[in-house]
Predict the structure.
Amino acid sequence: MDQEPTPRRSALDLTYPELENELVAAGVRAFHARKLWSALHRESQVDPCQREDFPPPLARWVAKNLAPAAPLAPVRPSVADDIPSSDGLTRKFLLRLSGGQTIETVLMRYPGRYTACLSTQAGCAMGCVFCATGQMGFVRHLQPGEIVAQVLHTQETLRAAGQPGLRNLVLMGMGEPLHNYDSVMRALEIISDTRGLNIGPSKISISTVGVIPGILRMAEEKRPYNLAVSLHSASEEERAALVPASRRWPLKDLIAACRVYGEKTGQRILFGWTLIEGKNDSPTDAENVAKLLRGIDAHVNLIPLNPTDGYPGAPSAHRAADEFQRVLQEAGIPSTIRQRRGIDVAAGCGQLKAARSGARRPEPTA
Ligand code: SAH
Ligand code: SF4
């Protein structure tokens, strides 16, 4: 399925110990890694090859390995589009990767803080019927450095505007993070490294459609990030109609995996619920999800549908959302109704890209 060539390795794909190893293997002292790491991940607007403050052995290594077309030259996407929402709270970037594919990165402003929403794949193989990215089909996995570069881009944008840096990251852009497990975990290790971007693991949330092996692996490996599971339905059949990946990883097994995750990590799980009018927004739906989640330390995020061209559903009315929340509350399950952000910049997952490319129809995937 993955017909796109994998992009070449870049310095942004390397974790700190790997960068250190590269230097040491070339005879450069290990402690110089810190200066280079900081140049790449903290003061990232300056090309490391132009730096005049590097000690000569490091400067020579950088000139040989990080110059344009050198083996580890940092790969940074170009900005194909940059669209602010009219309320000024959301800014959406369409970034062009090497190879020409485009992905979305969204910067969201909340009182006193910024959150970036990152993509982990170009397109997605999971085929959720209401999702613009799912409707595009799968193009390719992102490399770790391509995930890191999205954070660098948003940090630089904030810095240029004199704004405080990013506080939170959510992996809720294009793609299924746990379908690209190794690259995502490697990227998050780089992003949370205290010597560089230094975004704390507790400020990072990974959202999954329910890739069970990935959830269990996260628990096993004690990954310190927050887990969000996109649920959308408490019925096996109805969920499979919305989320085709549910046929491979059925709801009952998914909930069992969430229980294991909760027990092993002691962490609360966020459950995402896209509210679709007349589909999954009745008080009975709310009662059913409350039953399903009984005994799990859960918080439910209720998100009214962002309409897409490829799916005829509509967002739930405010009243239905409030009523849904009331039922959950009575059952002792905390929830939040999320505002749809930047509706005028097509803020739903993959919608900007879909609007620009004219992509429409779902592909038979997953
Ligand atoms: N693949 C992961 C993360 C990316 S999607 C996942 O599915 O969780 C991030 C979230 O956006 C998911 O909860 C998804 O259900 C939601 N989403 C996708 N399309 C949407 C739309 N059109 N309206 C509202 N939410 C949507
Ligand atoms: Fe993929 Fe998530 Fe969209 Fe489903 S909702 S198609 S898993 S990006």
